[in-house]
Amino acid sequence: MRYQHDPYLRLADDDAYLFYSRFGEVLTVPTLTHLVKTWSQAVGLRGNYGSHSMRETWGWWQYKRGKPVPLLMEAYGHATQKQTLDYLCIQAEEVAELYDLEL
Question: Which of its termini does the chain have fewer beta carbons within 10 Å around, N or C?
Answer without folding.
Answer: N
